[in-house]
Amino acid sequence: MKKIDVVIAGVGGQGNLLLAKLITLTALAEGWAVKRSEIKGLAQRGGSVLSQVRIGEKIWSPLIELGSADFLLGLEPVEALRNYQFLGPQGKAIVSSNFAPNPIKFSEEEILEKARSLNFLLIPALDLAKKAGSPQSANIVILGAVSHFLPFALSTYEKVLKENLKRLQEENLKAFALGREEIQKLA
């Protein structure tokens, strides 16, 4: 593996920063160099949150150039579309099909249709997280989905999840498994 660039887009409160941290810790546990960057803005008020994780043998900068990301992980469809320009030509977008509450009215079906036209892999992350027993675990569902494509051992993910998510541990492990299961249907 030369490098893997991951962009994570969402809104405040969706666990964007935790998702970036878990990917970072998993890569580090397997001996890779990692750099992470986060833009939080008004995250505490439901504003946009963007994280970038770069993984490789040697990583010099934490920032990912437009049009070069290997993965775009969207915790919210509108934010994923807003950050689509980061995705490289061979990149994969794994995006929750569940919307965050938004004061601006827009057609959810039009947004999802646009996402489908861009070949986003849409996953009902919130629905799967609820099925796992924890609606807060939608970000872990997305982690499970992207783990299908990343070159890390399942045992490493499980170890990182157990060490870093003491609360609702069983629910998070189930959410991770449901994300992997769902992406296998789509990939």
Structure, described:
There is one protein chain. By secondary structure, the chain is of the alpha/beta class. The chain has a single domain (3-186), classed as Pyruvate-ferredoxin oxidoreductase, PFOR, domain III (Pyruvate-ferredoxin Oxidoreductase, domain 3), CATH 3.40.920.10. The protein is built from seven helices and six strands. The chain has helices at 16-29, 77-82, 108-117, 125-132, 138-147, 154-164, 169-186; strands at residues 3-11, 33-39, 48-56, 69-74, 87-96, 121-123. A hairpin with an 8-residue loop joins strand 2 and strand 3 (48-56). The model has no long low-confidence stretch (mean pLDDT 93).
Offer a quick outline of the entry.
The chain is built from 7 helices and 6 strands; from the N terminus they run βαβββαβαβαααα. It is α/β, with parallel strands linked by helices and 187 residues long.
